[in-house]
Design a protein that fits this description.
α2 (29-41) runs parallel beside α3 (57-68) and α8 packs across α9 (220-231). With 421 residues, the protein is of the alpha/beta class. β7 (212-216), α9 and β8 form a beta-alpha-beta unit. It is built from 17 helices and 15 strands.
Length: 421
């Protein structure tokens, strides 16, 4: 097979990128423990991996762990604005992992990079949003016979994959890493909560205290975001379509209302639903002058930018990652990061300490699939509970936190039915 070369912005950035990779590694002890084991055992030997992920310093540490395990890897970006160009250069130049990613790449380049990653003829895919898997099933069906498994990192991707499986079109097994408790309880809640605010603050320099902060969606990401916005002094409003989640938000002390009502009172709006047109034309028509709109879901579909373009009399760039849409009546609405994943478009994404657990799940799930591929059907699998628990155990160990274990008597009691009052 012909050697694949990457496509990065500037190879001269490799030294800077290596420094960023090393800095992130300090906060990723679980992944480093797995890397040490992989280096000795080589559980991924012979595995050709095409990965489509956010190209960050944390992702780089995952790639180095997979390589230590024997995998042959090619990496491309899963979002046009999420790439760290220095990290991409370091992976390609210093570690000989071909990387196809340039921050700000246009739509055509983005998809051509995914196509280039598929030229690796993978037998394992690692996706974040399922764009690579979708292209593989639509445009490169000739490669499907070689693919034995994959993993998916994010809620949006899992939704797409479950739809594919339900329709009978998914051709190989994929582990939904997003469904691991050590992923969505920590990455989604603590990571998204902190990094979303980080992106908004970096982009706008706005004071959150005293603002009405509207969170659309109260899943794990929404929970974390609402909690942290309240901690910064915002008056938090939650919008939801799920009655159980809406009730939980009320019980957590947040004001809950329909978006039609929230649109009139909100100062800052953030969507975290994974759906489409959560902020829509009717909402834009009633928003305050100066409202700030951002998205922390995977795709830029949650804010109806086409409707906003149609309503706007002019659009201008007012800050590095902020576009001002002036409505026909003179009101100004501000969109952060082009409506893309704001924590990566305008900041650096999740802290390495939470990505440590998410990427540890990626690594051990890849190992689990390599071992069990012959037994698996073409559907979406959750991360096995024992792997999830092992990641949590390793994280506690790395944090020097000790916990209790059941005595023999306690173990027997919880598995019996004879004893009562």
């Amino acid at each position: 097979m012909k050697a694949i070369e990457g496509d990065v912005k500037d190879s001269a950035l490799a030294k800077e990128g290596q420094g960023l990779i090393d800095w992130a590694a300090r906060e990723m002890p679980v992944l480093l423990l797995i890397r040490d084991r992989f280096r000795q055992e080589k559980p991924l030997a012979g595995l050709r991996v095409s990965a489509c992920l956010h190209v960050t310093s944390e992702t780089a540490n995952l790639m180095l762990t997979l390589k230590a395990g024997g995998a042959d890897i090619v990496l491309c970006a899963s979002n046009p604005l999420s790439t760290n160009d220095a990290v991409a250069a370091a992976l390609t130049v210093e570690h000989h992992i071909p990387t196809f990613a340039i921050k700000g790449e246009d739509n055509d380049t983005y998809y051509s990079h995914i196509a280039s990653a598929l030229e690796h003829r993978p037998n394992f895919t690692m996706d974040d949003g399922a764009d690579l898997v979708t292209m593989l099933h639509r445009e490169r069906t000739d490669l499907l016979g070689e693919v034995t498994g994959g993993t998916e990192e994010t809620t949006t991707g899992v939704v797409r994959l479950r739809a594919m499986a339900a329709q009978g079109v998914l051709k190989y097994p994929i582990v939904a890493v997003n469904e691991a408790l050590t992923k969505h309880m920590f990455d989604n809640r603590y990571g998204t909560g902190q990094s979303t605010l980080d992106g908004i603050i970096r982009a706008t320099n706005v004071l959150l205290a005293g603002k009405v902060f509207v969170v659309a969606g109260y899943g794990w990401c929404g929970r974390g975001l609402a909690s942290r916005a309240r901690g910064m002094g915002s008056q938090v409003v939650v919008t939801e379509v799920d009655p159980l989640r809406a009730l939980e938000a009320v019980m957590d002390g947040f004001q809950v209302m329909p978006m039609a009502d929230a649109a009139r009172v909100g100062d800052i709006f953030v969507t975290v639903t994974g759906d489409v047109n959560v902020l829509d034309r009717a909402h834009f028509e009633s928003m305050k002058d100066g409202a700030i709109l951002a998205n922390s879901g995977h795709f830029n579909s949650e804010i109806n930018l086409a409707a906003m373009d149609d309503l706007a009399s002019s659009v201008r760039q007012v800050r590095g990652f902020v576009q001002e849409y002036r409505m026909g009546d003179g009101r100004r609405l501000h969109v952060v990061g082009e409506g893309r994943l704001v924590n990566l478009a305008a900041a650096e994404g999740h802290p390495a300490a939470v990505m440590d657990m998410s990427f540890a799940n990626q690594a051990v799930s890849a190992e689990w699939m390599a071992i069990n591929q012959s037994k698996l059907e073409p559907r979406v699998y959750d991360v096995p509970a024992e792997l999830d628990a092992e990641v949590a155990r390793l994280k506690l160990e790395a944090m020097h936190v000790a916990i209790d274990t059941l005595t023999d008597e306690q173990e027997k009691y919880i598995h019996s039915w004879e004893e009562g009052t």
